[in-house]
Amino acid sequence: MVEIEFRGYTFDTGLIIVFISAFIMLIWIILKLFRVIETPLIFELAPFMASLVVIFGFGMTIGKIVLSLKYLQNDMKEVKTEVKEIRDEMVFLKADFKHFVRYRKSLS
Question: Which terminus of the chain is more exposed, N or C, with fewer CB under 10 A?
């Protein structure tokens, strides 16, 4: 989904759709309870469709979070391998430095 920036905050359009749908459903239920809305049966399915949009939006948001966690996990694996390579190179550098110190002492 698209991210919207407003006054330094970042909003995900999936969450915006979820909250708007939930708000519309809540208003509709309140108006229906007070009998302000008298609708045919076909229009009474509107909250159910809004509920499906809410569920779909939550699913998309959770999927995005899981995907970013997978990317983070892969990045962590790469960092671990790089740290291991650096550790191995440090061992070789220490050995080279010891040989250099011995060589320098032998020249003196």
Answer: C
Residue 36 vs residues 20, 51, 99: alpha-carbon distances, Å: 21, 21, 90
Structure token digits, residue 90: 């440090």
Count Cβ neighbours within 10 Å for each residue of 79-97 and write b for 16 or more, e otherwise: eeeeeeeeeeeeeeeeeee
- Tell me the chain's radius of gyration from C-alpha atoms: 30
The rounded distance, in Å, linking the Cα atoms of 10 and 6 is 6
Cβ partners under 8 Å of residue 47, min gap 6: 25, 28, 29
One digit per residue, the tens of pLDDT, for the chain of length 108 reads 566 676 777 777 777 777 887 888 788 888 888 878 777 766 777 777 777 877 887 888 888 888 889 999 999 999 999 999 999 899 888 888 888 888 777 776
Structure tokens at 49: 């469709």
